[in-house]
Amino acid sequence: MLDKRFVLENAELVQQNCVDRGVKADVSRFVELETQRRTLLQEAEDLNRQANEVSKSIGKAKDDAEREARKEEGRQLREAKDAKQSEVDRVGLEADRILRGLPNMTHPESPRGDEAASHELRKGESKPPKFNFKPLDHLALAEQHDLIDFEGGSRVSGNGFYYLRNEAVLLEFALQRYALDRLMREGFTPTMTPDLARNEIVQGIGFIPRGPETQIYSIENSDLNLVATAEITLGGLHAGQVLDESQLPIKLAGVSHCFRTEAGAAGRAGRGLYRVHQFTKVEMFAFTTPDQSEDMHNLFLELECEIFDGLGVPFRVLDIASGDLGGPAYRKFDLEAWMPGRGQGGEYGEVTSTSNCTDYQSRRLDIRYKKPGEKGTHFVHTLNGTAVACGRAMIAILENCQQADGSILVPEVLRVYVGKDRIGAPDDAE
């Protein structure tokens, strides 16, 4: 969430930011409530001080009558203080509800507008392939080579679940190891995270764990939820802790299953592996000082581009417009891969994203750091980025690397992990 003082001192700027991001919020009401809360709090503290003074004076009373009178005065003052504190809590609760609904501020270079205003920054090294045959989408390719069983997944777990088979299993593990190896060379600590997180951690990261708008699977009769991304479990790792500045930046490469309800996400573009209820992802996460976060965000983007350039997958990078940013993100870059099987002749589809969330999440999770020689503490900045979401990366590989003879070339960087150069021999073509 945003700093209360910042909102109070920059109410018009914060309100305009809400407009830019398409978020309905009454910033002026927050200012009114927070100002009222501070006044009420001062009044409560004054009443408490008066009650303490009266309490100290009871022993100095001249007689029983004066002693009883002072006790009664103290009792009335404490009742008045308690009533005032109840007002403080009531007003504070309403103010906090507004504050928690405010999105992060937006990077000055981020485009303003809705999704259509997102700006293309660059393209990858590989160009979309020019096939001399009609390319198949990943569903047809998976059926042809017995790679994915959606029907079996549906029978066992419901729509949006699936079984990986044969070389698809090898590709899944190859993608994970390929991404991890690259991130470890960059100083990331490989981490396997829990698949469950408490409500307070999910909320602190910025997801809605319960209610009609949630995309999270929750566990009945508990405060636990299946995580939608390792961002949740990595971000919550240092909740409530004070780090030393010398520890920063902390760079983590998290491997986790991801579970999403994907409510209301039906449509042709989301067919197959593109929008599923469970998948595996390698996630980058960093805790930094404020001075380090922008450079770290650029590093995350460079690593994502390097990973997909290494796979030989064509892609473009978008600077996401304000109206399409999630609440915690200060700035977000999406990497969209070319998918020949989408639409009428191919479309770009998102495969990774990276966001700088500044101190928005760390305020909610109370993650701070301490500078040497200083008494106070500062909130860390948090950043997240997808190194590889295995399902979507697999779509891009299968569709871009298919050959006229029906086989699928394995990207060279993955061959050492997969153990073969191609999926399907040329004589398998129909």
From TrEMBL:
Keywords: Aminoacyl-tRNA synthetase, ATP-binding, Cytoplasm, Ligase, Nucleotide-binding, Protein biosynthesis. Residues 49-88, 101-132 are annotated as: Disordered. ATP binds at R260, T261, E262, V276, H277, Q278, F279, E350, V351, T352, S353. The record marks T386 as: Important for serine binding. InterPro entries: aa-tRNA-synt_IIb (IPR002314), aa-tRNA-synth_II (IPR006195), aa-tRNA-synth_II/BPL/LPL (IPR045864), Ser-tRNA-ligase_type_1 (IPR002317), Ser-tRNA-synth_1_N (IPR015866), SerRS_1_N_sf (IPR042103), SerRS_core (IPR033729), tRNA-bd_arm (IPR010978). Its EC number is 6.1.1.11. GO terms for biological process: seryl-tRNA aminoacylation. The keyword Nucleotide-binding applies. Residues 137-411 form the Aminoacyl-transfer RNA synthetases class-II family profile domain. One of its GO terms (molecular function) is ATP binding. It holds the Pfam family Seryl_tRNA_N. Signal peptide: none annotated. One of its GO terms (cellular component) is cytoplasm. Residues 60-88, 109-128 have a biased composition (Basic and acidic residues). Gene3D superfamilies: Bira Bifunctional Protein, Domain 2, Serine-tRNA synthetase, tRNA binding domain. L-serine binds at T229, R260, E283, N384. It is an enzyme of class 6 (ligase). This is Serine--tRNA ligase. It comes from Botrimarina mediterranea. The lineage of its organism: Bacteria, Pseudomonadati, Planctomycetota, Planctomycetia, Pirellulales. The gene is serS.
